[in-house]
Amino acid sequence: MTSMHNVPLASLQTLDTLDTPAAVIDVPRMLHNIQRMQSRMTALGVSFRPHVKTSKCVEVAHAQLAAGAAGVTVSTLKEAARFFDDGVTDILYAVGMVASKLPAALALRRRGCDLKIVTDSVASAQAIVAFGAEFGETFDVWIEIDTDGHRSGIRPDDDALLDVARVLHDGGATLGGVMTHAGSSYDFDTPEALAAIAEQERAGCVRAATRLRDAGLPCPVVSVGSTPTALAAAHLDGVTEVRAGVYVFFDLVMHNVGVCTTDELALSVLTTVIGHQAEKGWAIVDAGWMAMSRDRGTQKQKRDFGYGQVCRIDGSVMPGYVLSGANQEHGILSREGEPDPDIVTRFPIGTLLRILPNHACATGAQFPEYHAFGPDRELATWPRLHGW
């Protein structure tokens, strides 16, 4: 199990000395989340490949790998290059490949990176094999499968699956396997519904793999995953690996889905009360949408947290108080229901608070770095990767 001793935490600063707004990571919570997911994957008998797009942070990824992850998933080739530079070699670039990005993928593979790429079309597959033939490179390519109509991929029973596979296989690429992402799992919030979408994801991807094998084509990897389905799956027969990302921090959307408690949310935004509109029952803080992001993912769920749940500086939730509105650099803190007549005395100017985000990936993306803290509240600064 990953422990506090494996994670660098040393600094002259503490939470109450930070400039605000600031993105802060509660490391004990993060390590709990990492171990929870890794233990579940081990129990289900599959490899685990965390999606590091959530944190885009080397220190976080190394904690995931130390807990037993077999490799990482990335959303940009810039991420792939950064994590490879820091010693991670087994990397899946889980976004459909286009010809313009093949030179960057080639450069990584030539440097020794075990980079896998993804396609879901004949046109993309043809570009991959043509480029590989031109430069003498055998790309490892996985086919993306659509198991829920959420986004990209080929339906498991679509004729296009075999068409794409034959282009890759006959063209000299390595047909590495199939992968899917049940993004629609975010739309459910009961154990029964989550278990059903997890089984739909598993069965669909396994069905695609079976069709390839029955056609005499290789399919060594069957990769599935989202945070809700990874935690809800009853079994993963036929699956070789799972991918999940937001579990490392969790967020309010995941809380509403039902896969975590607010006590497991590891990322928050430290903010300062800078003013009041007493007659409206508002406290004004210096974390607006530029800090929290514009993501209002809880708006369509059973509980709307506005732009985030308000917590004391120690991380304890203040029930009923949310960031109900946000401008670019101003956040509006208010009580749900009736305005709080004691808002000024309850939240004096200068009060430090922490706001739990709707979507950890989007909120993290607003900041160039995290401030990570352990039980002693001393901070380490962990850089966060930006751009593409």
Automatic annotation (TrEMBL):
First-tier enzyme category under EC: lyase
Organism: Pandoraea anhela
Keyword Coiled coil set for record: no
Family: Belongs to the DSD1 family.
GO molecular function, one term: D-serine ammonia-lyase activity
UniProt keywords, alphabetically: Lyase
Record keyword Lyase present: yes
Protein known as: D-threo-3-hydroxyaspartate dehydratase
